[in-house]
Every structure is written in structure tokens, then in C-alpha cells.
Design a protein that fits this description.
The protein is of the alpha/beta class. It contains 16 helices and 28 strands. It folds into 2 domains: 2-17 and 38-312, Metallo-dependent phosphatases (Purple Acid Phosphatase, chain A, domain 2); 333-526, 5'-Nucleotidase, C-terminal domain (5'-nucleotidase,  domain 2, Alpha-Beta Complex), CATH 3.90.780.10.
């Protein structure tokens, strides 16, 4: 009976689809026209080494054994299926710490993925490691805007695109990674982006490859990108030959696709699943005999990966062997969380309990070197802490990178400009968590002009406007200090590298404070744009805190 129930459940999941997407532009094809080709794409993105299922708010989510089970089930009963991953399979749990990406590549192989594009975190252990891990790939690796010519062993593995023939019809797939690659990944080595200029110069190598496919007679073209939803929209608007974009990078859970309408009546459908394998995307594209998408017949849904999905026995067995060195971390309990420290901070315009906890840990370490202020970028926090025991494995998941804490002396003017840079776009990975500062800002103002009030804690619970001429001792991670996310701390003096990993700083903090409670958003908050008093005591002089900014 249990087996019958599971089979019925899988069948219901497979056949579940949202209503057909409505077309807001004429495609020149009757809505009742029969499709010339129906292609089903199963897709993931930003798995970040989440091989095991995990608990979130008391729910079991994700896990490559469940993903593999569902992918195999759908492929077994659905014609014309391709499975695609949109990058960042590396980094995020102890699996990457111990295996440097080998278990992630093994998952894509075992689950039968067809196509994959490279994400920025694939370079976290360097391009040599990436080449080593991808040597065993059984899937196509595509990226049109990565120049790996200086690394021949990696370059020979990457193609700008791939063409799949399905029912005698050619479908082209073009890969792309974020043009910010070298700004947000400081370990790419001799691997570079072919074009990176904003607002649209970075599109050229991708558009060129699309044009190349068109010249080969391919009239159905899909991008597989690790660029984020906002840039995917730019791609869709500027390359009308693209029919769909399987996206990643921004960790955006699109329950319904974004549909871009072109002047010629065609459309581009953009999809993304979120992150960590919480869902599997299922996109059913219907094409007419001219290669255009029949939008009303195109269907999409996200399938939740939870305890109702079965687990592939071979994957469970594989992971049981690989998890042995991780068990010591899992069983090492450091403290207890009295509430949930959520890390779903995408688009959130204020500080978070998770970010504040990390900033406090960095501050506590830095205070031994005279620091009174700390920073930590939001993108450097990769996990969350649920109410209950906190293990060492969880800390490695939250702070998986090998970045160390740096202490330095900088001016108040540099701090202001650094904060402006952190707030210069919609809240993103460079949004800073802080300790020792209170910041209010106006998100409607132009970039680099958003800070409304910037207060520094002169003595405990005694807040004063920052003095832009004064020197302050700050603690932060060496990634941001070295220019990661575009920060510029030029002019810093009395620099001390502690060589202490951020994860170790948080471990030390929990040993001193074994019971922790979430702190609400009070440190970085947006305000109504009628507030205009900036509370600054002087005008900044010298270099700004942002690369490329003009004083």
C-alpha cells in the first residue's frame, strides 16, 4: 500500500501544472494551433552543495536523493525532457568543505542532467579545482561569456552553447554567467568575463552566440544563465530571438514565470526555482512550426521537494558514505537558539537577526584589537539557524567561506561611502550587516546619496552622528576589505589580519553566549523620503569608499 500511495503521489506531482500563461501580445499564431514541438525542461539553480534534506521551520525540504527520485520519475513517463542546472552547485555546506565539488558533480551525473552553466561560486576553490571537478561531468557545460583561454584544462570543457535535436528539430542552448564575476569572486585567477560593461555591453558575447545559432538554422533558443532575474530581463528585452531563460544567481523563487513581450509578437519566458533544492522547476514549452513559443500552451510549475517525495536508494547509499566526516560536525553542539534566525533576506531593505548575529560575532573578535564597529556583507551568509540546538555543521553552513576577520583604522568619510555603496542598489549581497552603527536611508534617492542618518555608538547606548574626519577602528571580513562586492577601503591604516575564519569567530561567540535570541531590525532601516536632515558633522575629504566613485 505504501508503494502504491507513493506511485500515485508521484503521478499527481508529475501531472500538476499551473494554468497556461496568458499572452499579452499577438504571436501571429492561433491560440488553438497545435504545437510543432513540445519540450519539457526540469531545472534547478543555486543548489549550493545541499546534498542532504534539511529542516526549515519544522519542515523537511530538499535533498539530492529526493530530487533524483523525482527527476527520474518524470523522465520515465514524459517525452522530450531535458534536465538543466543554472549554476552555483558548489559551496554552502560541509560537503563542499570536504569534497570541493565532487559530490555536486556526481549528483548531476547520477540524476541525468543534460546541460549546466557555471556559477560564480564554482570558482571558490579556484579555477584549477573547477577544472578538476568538471573533468568527470557527463553533461554539457556551457557559458558564452567566460574566457578561460588562459586555463586550457578548463577551457576545453566549456562550450558557448549546445544544440539538441528533438523529434528532428534543433533547439539551441546558450550559457552565461553574471558580468560581475570578477568583482564578486576574487579567486577566478586567469579566468575572465569577455565583456562586463553596463548597462548592456556585457550582453554582446551572449547575443553573438545566439546569432551564431540562428545562422546555423536554429530557430528555438534558450538561455541558461547565472545572472539573476533583473539581468535576465535585460537579456530577454535585448535579444528577441531568445524564447526562454532558465535562470539562477539571485535565488529568486518564481512561482509564476516572468514573460517578456517583444515588438515582433514573440515572447521570452523567464523561470527560476529559488535555491538549495527546495523546489524543482518544470517548464513545458510549446513551439509552432516557425520556432515561436505558443504562449497560451506553455505551462510552468514549481514542485516542492519535501518528505512526500521518495528518495533514490543509490543516492542515499552514496551520501551515507560521503557524510561520515560530516557527522563529527553535526554532533558537536555549540549552543541553543531561542528563536529562528531567518536568512531569507532577498530584497529585504533592513537588517536581519541572522546578519546581526554575525556582525556581533565579528565585533566581539575585533574588540580585542580595539574595533568599535563591524561590517559583514549579506551575501556572505549562506544559511539560517532554526530554534533549537546549534551544531558546528550549521555554523559551517552559515559561514562556509574561508574568509578571515581583518581589523583596520579608517575615516568616518570612508565608512559613510562604504555604507552608501552597500545601499546603492536594491538590497543585494553587498548589503551590510553592522554593529556599532545605526543607519537610516532613503531608497528612493539616487545611488550614493541615500544615507539620511549615520550614528555611531560612542559609549554603550550613547549614539552620536559620525564624524567624517575622525578615525574609527573597524572589523570586517577580508573579502570585503580586499574589494569583494566593489567595496574600497583604500587609505586604511594599522591593518591587522587575524587569520581567524568567520566561522571560527561565530563559534567563539557561541561558546561565550550559548543561548542566543533573534534581534529585530533596528540597525539599518529605510525611512520616509521626507526626512532630509543627514546629521553629518563635516564634509568627506580624500578618496571615497567606493571604487570608481567621484568625490
Amino acid at each position: 500500500m505504501q508503494r502504491l500511495f507513493r506511485l500515485l503521489l508521484i503521478a499527481s506531482v508529475i501531472t500538476l501544472n499551473l494554468p497556461g500563461l496568458s499572452a499579452s501580445a499577438q504571436t501571429g499564431t492561433s491560440q488553438s494551433a497545435k504545437p510543432d514541438l513540445v519540450l519539457t525542461i526540469l531545472h534547478t539553480n543555486d543548489l549550493h552543495a545541499h546534498e542532504d534534506s534539511f529542516l526549515e521551520n519544522g519542515r523537511v525540504l530538499g535533498g539530492t536523493a529526493r530530487l533524483t527520485y523525482l527527476i527520474r520519475a518524470i523522465r520515465a513517463r514524459t517525452p522530450n525532457v531535458l534536465t538543466i542546472d543554472a549554476g552555483d552547485i558548489f559551496q554552502g555546506t560541509a560537503y563542499f568543505k570536504f569534497y570541493s565539488g565532487a559530490t555536486e558533480v556526481a549528483y548531476l551525473n547520477n540524476a541525468g542532467y543534460d546541460i549546466y552553466t557555471i556559477g560564480n561560486h564554482e570558482f571558490d576553490n579556484g579555477s584549477d579545482n573547477l577544472a578538476k571537478q568538471l573533468q568527470s561531468a557527463k553533461f554539457s557545460i556551457i557559458s558564452a561569456n567566460i574566457d578561460a583561454s588562459a586555463k586550457p584544462e578548463l577551457a576545453k570543457l566549456i562550450k558557448p552553447s549546445t544544440i539538441r535535436t528533438i523529434e528532428g528539430k534543433k533547439v539551441g542552448f546558450v550559457g552565461a554567467v553574471t558580468p560581475d564575476l570578477e568583482k564578486i569572486s576574487l579567486t577566478t585567477g586567469d579566468v575572465h568575463i569577455k565583456e562586463s560593461g553596463e548597462p548592456t555591453a556585457w550582453i554582446k558575447p551572449i547575443a553573438d552566440e545566439v546569432a551564431n545559432l540562428k545562422q546555423q538554422g536554429v530557430d528555438k533558443i534558450i538561455l541558461v544563465t547565472h545572472c539573476g532575474v533583473d539581468r535576465d530581463k535585460v537579456l530577454a528585452e535585448n535579444i528577441p530571438a531568445v524564447d526562454a531563460i532558465i535562470g539562477g544567481h539571485s535565488h529568486t523563487r518564481l512561482n509564476r514565470p516572468v514573460v517578456i513581450n517583444h515588438a515582433d509578437g514573440s515572447t521570452c519566458t523567464i523561470v527560476q526555482t529559488g535555491c538549495f533544492g527546495r523546489t524543482l522547476g518544470k517548464l513545458r514549452l510549446s513551439f509552432d512550426n516557425k520556432g515561436q513559443v505558443l504562449t497560451p500552451l506553455t505551462k510552468y510549475n514549481l514542485i516542492s521537494i519535501n518528505e512526500k517525495i521518495g528518495e533514490s536508494p543509490d543516492v542515499k547509499k552514496y551520501l551515507a558514505g560521503k557524510s561520515q566526516p560530516i557527522l563529527a560536525l553535526r554532533n558537536n553542539i555549540l549552543g541553543f537558539a531561542l528563536g529562528n534566525f531567518d536568512n531569507r533576506s532577498q530584497g529585504l531593505p533592513a537588517d536581519t537577526a541572522m546578519g546581526n548575529l554575525v556582525a556581533d560575532a565579528v565585533y566581539e573578535l575585533g574588540s580585542k584589537y580595539g574595533a568599535t564597529i563591524s561590517f559583514h556583507n549579506r551575501g556572505g551568509i549562506r544559511g539560517r539557524i532554526d530554534q533549537g540546538p546549534i551544531s558546528l555543521e550549521k555554523i559551517e553552513e552559515v559561514l562556509p567561506f574561508n574568509n578571515a576577520v581583518v581589523i583596520a583604522t579608517v575615516s568616518g568619510g570612508t565608512i559613510k561611502n562604504v555604507i552608501e555603496h552597500a545601499l546603492s542598489n536594491n538590497p543585494s549581497g553587498k548589503f551590510l550587516n553592522v554593529h556599532g552603527l545605526k543607519i537610516t536611508y532613503d531608497p528612493t534617492k539616487p545611488s550614493e546619496q541615500r544615507v539620511v542618518s549615520l550614528l555611531v555608538e560612542a559609549t554603550p547606548n550613547n549614539w552620536k552622528p559620525i564624524n567624517l574626519e575622525k578615525s574609527y577602528r573597524v572589523a570586517l571580513n577580508d573579502y570585503n576589505f580586499s574589494g569583494g562586492e566593489g567595496f574600497d577601503f583604500a587609505g586604511a591604516t594599522d591593518v591587522t589580519s587575524t587569520k581567524i575564519r568567520l566561522a571560527d569567530a561565530l563559534v567563539a561567540y557561541l561558546k561565550k553566549h550559548p543561548k542566543i535570541s533573534p534581534v529585530s531590525a533596528v540597525r539599518v532601516t529605510p525611512v520616509d523620503n521626507t526626512i532630509s536632515d543627514n546629521h553629518f558633522s563635516s564634509t568627506p575629504k580624500g578618496r571615497t569608499g567606493v571604487k570608481g566613485a567621484v568625490n
